[in-house]
Specification:
The complex is a heterodimer.
Chain A: H1 18-44, H2 70-77, H3 79-110, H4 116-124, H5 131-141, H6 153-160, H7 175-200, H8 204-212, H9 217-245, H10 249-254, H11 264-273, H12 278-309
Chain B: H1 2-37, H2 41-44, H3 59-65, H4 67-70, H5 85-89, H6 94-102, E1 104-105, E2 108-109, H7 119-132, H8 144-151, H9 159-165, H10 185-216, H11 222-231, H12 238-251, H13 257-281, H14 285-293, H15 298-309, H16 311-327, H17 330-335, H18 343-354, H19 358-378, H20 380-390
Antiparallel strand pairs in B: 1-2
The chains are: A mainly alpha, B mainly alpha.
């Protein structure tokens, strides 16, 4: 990948202790904050609620039990976790599809107009604010008034069209979609920026040649642009998959995981800090990690390759 | 020629329509928040924010029912001046107003042939009369929500009004010290700074040292140790929250700034080291070699050469790290909670405890968004670069 000479010039090889003084503090902090706790989480996932005994002691006689893997039985088969998995899957399909699709659409469109920078800044802006801020912005859009006046924009629009107002965040059939829209609103700018940079690197000669040969814009897009930027699209998709698997703040702020909107990361938080079940929480963390790590490894590798080319 | 151009402009129309439409969808929710945060709290639940510039409640009903006799400003009949606060106080509620309208004036029905307003219309008119008579005159826009949010005011009116009448809550003193009220956004803003600034400086400083060592110092295991550190980027922070909060509980670090500084420093390091090492390693060898030939030590080469040269890399990194921590909820929730509330915590707490206090929520949300937005619009280039590179970290 690289031909750069990473050897240190001879004159700079001074001292045997000095280098460790430079890397030492960073190594110590990372060992204490990342490495040790990560291993410890694995151990905790086999322990009971207060980590004093094996998880097997939490089994109830006469009910199904996975012994020392009892916490994983909860993490993988309990109704609330199954609902969280289902919701995360829904998030994954719709939010990844939504952000990448919209990002690509906007990247293509902004490429053709003079106000490209302004349009991109507007779309990217939500990336600067917190999920909590975005949660409030959209909670207000979704507000449901029981009286005559609807101060929530969405309900005001549909009531002015003659429909009944909807309680967007507590209606089980709708609320997950309402939350996912917030995620799409926040992350489309990210996808757009990366995809736009990639689109600009497509050689114009190829596009012009195709257009001269009479290809429609539609065909130019699908047959030339998309195949060329496919590696970038793949990186964006996996990055979004990882983000979506860890989604927490939006759900925590807007519904608290109630009304059937539970997701994995919120459940993990709830088990630890609301129900005080550290074993179960650790098991959910392990499940979450096992789900994300394949994407992570693939992604970090691909992203670095891309950077090296750029 | 002109026909061709016309065709081209027309052909571009769908592009502009779709793009501008999307930009508006992206922008309008935020504008709604901003407008709402600037409206008087009485108005927010009465009408949508998009009506903020239209006539106040009851104006239309007033002009239909009363305007023809009392005039558009309410002063047309000198003996019944509707801008007289003393007179209007007697008819401040719809029932009293309706009762009065049923009485005869100089032997004639008060409204002559006009229909009697129903309860809702009467209430609207009463509201409008209070407004023009100055009993409850309020401006279209106000900053009082921001004051209330900053001070952590939770009453039924506004902070300024309660303080003026001396009816403020026990935890408020109506002096500048209210800015530090633990329930307020002022205190939370300070706490957010106290978290975000050290958590930006510390990892970058340690990473600069380590990055320098990884690129320009010689020691055994340099390459594989670096590879290991890069690998740590894939560990999501959810993986370590539980053991660390248990250890912190034993050490008494839960709810302290030191605890969260350590945590963010640890998680900021792998990516920061990776970036610093790549940047420092790409600096020309001759530069360092000649510095050493001139007798510089590692220490001088680091402070005088490496650090000043890596300002561009540090800028992107610092912006990314700062905003990431500023916007973080989960870590603040776990390690600081209500003991040292930061902005995100304070807002999420207001959501659950206040229900529909939109005037406070919108102002609070905007206070928390102000700094990131300023950073974003002033340092957009660095910001986007840092954001894109950092998005793959765990």
């Amino acid at each position: 990948m690289t031909t750069k000479d990473y050897r240190v010039p001879t004159i700079m090889k001074q001292g045997k202790v000095a280098p460790w003084l430079y890397v030492g503090p960073a190594l110590l902090i990372m060992a204490g904050i990342i490495v040790y706790p990560a291993f410890n989480t694995f151990l905790l996932s086999f322990k009971n609620a207060d980590a004093t005994q094996s998880a097997a002691t939490a089994c109830v006689a006469g009910e199904s039990c996975w012994g020392v893997l009892e916490n994983f039985r909860y993490a993988l088969t309990s109704p609330i976790m199954l609902s969280a998995f289902r919701n995360n899957l829904l998030w994954m399909i719709l939010m990844v599809g939504g952000t990448v699709g919209m990002g690509l659409l906007i990247a293509v469109l902004t490429d053709r107009v003079k106000y490209e920078a302004l349009a991109k800044a507007l779309i990217f802006m939500p990336m600067a604010i917190s999920f909590v801020g975005a949660g409030i912005i959209w909670k207000f859009v979704y507000t449901y008034g029981t009286g005559q006046v609807q101060i929530g924009m969405l309900n005001a629009i549909i009531t002015s069209l003659g429909a009944e107002p909807v309680s967007w965040l507590s209606e089980p059939a709708i609320n997950n979609f309402a939350l996912i829209i917030v995620g799409v609103w926040m992350w489309t700018g990210f996808c757009m920026t990366i995809l736009s940079a990639s689109l600009k690197s497509v050689p114009t000669e190829i596009l012009e040649a195709a257009r001269v040969d009479g290809a429609t814009e539609w065909r130019v897009f699908w047959k030339i642009m998309v195949p060329i930027i496919m590696p970038t699209i793949a990186v964006v998709v996996t990055t979004m998959v990882i983000n979506v698997l860890k989604i927490f703040d939006i759900v925590y702020v807007m519904t608290g995981g109630n009304f059937g909107t539970e997701v994995i990361a919120n459940r993990m938080y709830g088990e630890m800090y609301v129900s005080h079940q550290s074993g179960r929480s650790a098991a959910i963390a392990v499940v979450l990690i096992l789900l994300t790590i394949p994407f992570m490894i693939w992604n970090v590798r691909r992203f670095r390759e891309q950077e090296a080319i750029r | 020629m002109t026909a061709d151009r016309f065709k081209k402009v027309l052909g571009g129309l769908p592009t502009h329509a779709v793009l501008i439409g999307l930009c508006l969808i992206w922008l309008i929710p935020t504008i709604g928040l901003l407008v709402t945060s600037l409206r008087p709290f009485q108005d927010i639940n009465q009408s949508g924010w998009w009506t903020a510039l239209s006539p106040p409640r009851g104006a239309e009903e007033y002009s239909q029912t009363c305007g023809s006799c009392h005039g558009s400003d309410g002063k047309a009949i000198a003996t019944a001046d509707l801008t007289d606060a003393e007179l209007i106080t007697k008819y401040s509620r719809s029932i009293k107003l309706l009762a009065m309208l049923k009485q005869e004036v100089e032997g004639q029905p008060h409204l002559e042939d006009a229909p009697m307003p129903d309860q809702q219309r009467a209430a609207d008119i009463a509201d409008y009369l209070k407004r023009i008579s100055g009993i409850e005159a309020r401006p279209r826009f106000t900053l009082s929500n921001y004051v209330d949010a900053m001070m952590g005011y939770r009453g039924r009116t506004t902070y300024a009004q309660d303080c003026a009448t001396g009816e403020q809550a026990l935890d408020l003193t109506c002096t500048a010290s209210d800015l530090l009220n633990p329930r307020g956004m002022g205190r939370a803003f300070l706490n957010s700074l106290l978290v975000a600034i050290p958590c930006t400086i510390l990892p970058i400083l340690f990473a600069a040292f380590a990055g320098y060592a990884f690129s320009w110092l010689h020691f055994r295991g340099r390459m594989w140790l670096f590879a290991l550190l890069v690998g740590l980027q894939i560990v999501p922070l959810q993986m370590t929250l539980i053991p660390i909060s248990r250890v912190y509980a034993q050490l008494g670090l839960n709810g302290t700034f030191v605890g969260i500084w350590l945590f963010h420093t640890g998680f900021g390091l792998p990516y920061a080291i990776y970036l610093m090492r790549n940047f420092l390693g790409s600096l020309p060898r001759d530069l360092f070699e000649s510095a050493y030939l001139d007798g510089a030590s590692h220490w001088t080469a680091f402070w005088r050469l490496a650090l000043p040269l890596s300002v561009p890399a540090i800028a992107s990194l610092a912006i990314f790290q700062f905003l990431w921590i500023w916007n973080d909820l989960l870590v603040a929730l776990v390690f600081l909670g209500g003991q040292k509330p930061v902005l995100t915590y304070q807002i999420s707490n207001m959501v659950s405890s206040l229900g529909a206090g939109w005037h406070l929520l919108t102002a609070a949300a905007f206070l928390s968004m102000a700094l990131p937005m300023i950073v974003f619009f002033s340092l957009q280039r660095y910001f986007v670069r840092g954001m894109l590179a950092g998005a793959v970290k765990g």
